[in-house]
Known about the structure:
Number of strands: 5
Mean pLDDT: 91
CATH class of the largest domain: Alpha Beta
Strand order of the largest sheet: 2-3-4-1-5
Distance between the termini: 51 Å
Bound molecules: zinc ion
Shape: elongated
Number of helices: 15
Number of domains: 2
Radius of gyration: 23 Å
Structural class: alpha/beta
Amino acid sequence: MIIGHQQIIKQLQHAVDIDHVAGAYLFAGMSNVGKETVALYFAKSINCLDLVHRPCDNCLACHKINTSNHPDFQIVRPDGKQIKIDQIRQLQRQVVFQPIEGRRKLYIITEADRMNLEAANCLLKTLEEPPAKSVLILLTSHLDALLPTIRSRCQIISFQPLPISELVTILTDQFSLSADRAVSIATLSQGAFGKALALAEDKGPLGIDHIPEVVTTTDRLSAFRIAEQLGEDLAQLDQLVMWYRDLLIIRQSTSFELLTHRNHLESLQKIAKHYSRIHLQSAIKSIFETKKLIERNVNATLALEVLVFKLMRTE
Ligand SMILES: [Zn+2]
């Protein structure tokens, strides 16, 4: 079962049904939103042996794709931080041959924006004249980081995160989470279902259990030290969001049921007085933006220092 993206699945399924599959697709959308899951589903639909229910998830072809053992199916992932030209060359050597078992040769390239320039230019040749019985599916969470020439040669399919309220309903109804945990997880994941699922499966507490220093301090000299500590474990950024979210709830409502750190209510109420609603909203936004920057290999130290200065209150 795939949650969300029903319209996209319908569109891809239709292409398979009328045998009008494009040579290259580009799935774009935030990380963990479900691009790879849908790409895998699409790949199975194309090569599935059951002609009625594609993909059946039961036949030998589906099974081989699920376990990455299908001779006409391959996932190319970054080798270290980059997708290198050798990986693309290897793909190009294979893609020209007829499929061995399936209807088409299928390649999923994850994090396609991590192709270095050499690799991207090399792939361009295949995208310009894709072999008849091949399908390339490129995935990216940074569409604008891809060469325009690559983008223009693919059919772009854009993946949207689930609305938070819808995700909360799914987490409570289908995964039996309590309402407040579902809200915390849905907020933390920003509607990316894969991320939400990973958080839901991790039964531990969602956050650190003391109020982070950046929330309480007014000492701007400590900013560099705080930034350095954040850099040691970037998962702290997700947790930080939860603290600012709690402050925002306290600032704008009188109902505290949805607080993640209800055990710190009194202290948080005192702290919240020092922050405006706008500051708290933009703090949350800045944290998410900084995460994105760091994912895109921007100098993490500098990005975190800028962030901490933005987060700290001035008086
Ligand atoms: Zn099948």
